From TrEMBL:
<dbReference type="InterPro" id="IPR002933">
    <property type="entry name" value="Peptidase_M20"/>
</dbReference>
<dbReference type="Pfam" id="PF01546">
    <property type="entry name" value="Peptidase_M20"/>
</dbReference>
<feature type="domain" description="Peptidase M20 dimerisation">
    <location>
        <begin position="174"/>
        <end position="267"/>
    </location>
</feature>
<dbReference type="InterPro" id="IPR017144">
    <property type="entry name" value="Xaa-Arg_dipeptidase"/>
</dbReference>
<comment type="similarity">
    <text>Belongs to the peptidase M20A family.</text>
</comment>
<dbReference type="GO" id="GO:0016805">
    <property type="term" value="F:dipeptidase activity"/>
</dbReference>
<dbReference type="Pfam" id="PF07687">
    <property type="entry name" value="M20_dimer"/>
</dbReference>
<dbReference type="InterPro" id="IPR017439">
    <property type="entry name" value="Amidohydrolase"/>
</dbReference>
<dbReference type="InterPro" id="IPR036264">
    <property type="entry name" value="Bact_exopeptidase_dim_dom"/>
</dbReference>
<dbReference type="InterPro" id="IPR011650">
    <property type="entry name" value="Peptidase_M20_dimer"/>
</dbReference>
<protein>
    <recommendedName>
        <fullName>Peptidase M20 domain-containing protein 2</fullName>
    </recommendedName>
</protein>
<dbReference type="InterPro" id="IPR052030">
    <property type="entry name" value="Peptidase_M20/M20A_hydrolases"/>
</dbReference>
Amino acid sequence: MIISVGKIIAGAIDEASSDLRKLSLVIHDNPELALEEKAACQLLVDYLENSGFEVQRNVAGLSTAFVSTYVSSAGAHGLNIGFCSEYDALPGIGHGCGHNLIAISGVAMFLAITRVMDKCRIPGTVKLYGTPAEEAIGGKITMLDHGVFDGTDLLMMLHPTAGYSGAWHSQCCLSMKIEYFGKASHAAMAPWDGINAGTAANIAMLTMGALREQLKPDWRTHGIITNGGQAANVIPEYSCIEYTIRTSWASELDILRERTLRVFEAAALATGCTHKVTEEFAYLDNQDNPVLGQLYEEIMESEYHLPPERGVGGSTDFGNLSQKFISLHGMFDLAGTRVPNHTVEFTKEARSAEAHRRTTFAAKTAARVVARCLVDEGFWKQVKRAHEERQQNSGDHK
Ligand SMILES: [Zn+2]
Ligand SMILES: [Zn+2]
């Protein structure tokens, strides 16, 4: 059974491969930032509609989000499987995270599993979620809050990086904007009349640096001053910094958040400024499923003859989905060149033929993992048990 299913999966993805390559290159060559991915969204929606699938647009109030839904010809009374596509780029370096490849990997897995359900007469529902703004505000979190993923039994997505893994425990991540409000004054004639918002930003940056001494090794804090004043001869009346904090577990993020907020408040107090903190949605850690992850890694290893690499660092809005749903965030090796994500070199590799070949292989691999869940009840039970265990243990990390 599993061998013929494997052939159906490979056939569906190979058949679509040249079309997927074209989609990937157009998205890559026209990088669009978070929430501005209009052309990429349109391209994917057109492709799905031309392939005969229904697509719902403007999902969760996001103009560049979509959901395509397929109901098996054998009926809907089976598993509800979801795949995620991302397609946002990074400022300055374009597709330096390879989201053009993530976009087509989602489509590839969707096509493969709809074909499997159809040919093998397996009941169920398959959805492809077009999830914008992963690099900025976390479109998946907004979609989750709007109930877009309700009823999902299993969610999958793939991401290119250096090395492959079925067990990426990503970091929780919270980004904040901190504004200081002071009083402008001539910096030479009457500096004593001013309240220096630029100094507040500096104190905040330095104190965050000092705080690092007492952070756990796997925690991260990093930030920039985006506005430190307008002119050297004016005491700045306004300053702004952007800061991100990361921890391995959600319970730790609350602790680090409290300490960080105290630092920002202290800088205001020290300078006499007032301040305002605007927090983004928190990205939670990715709760990998060891049963799904192991099968994914076994198939990947049979191709690459290299062990998996479970690196640390980095965050994804898929983490919030993984806290709720059984899921796999599979990592695959971009092109065998080991360039890191978020670099111009990664951008270049993300349009290579080798990256495309590896993307389609990873999609076939992940689709085979999904197919196993569909046809092997014992395996699916193990997957569910592993998810429950993970959920029970995730709160023990203070
Ligand atoms: Zn990224
Ligand atoms: Zn990414």
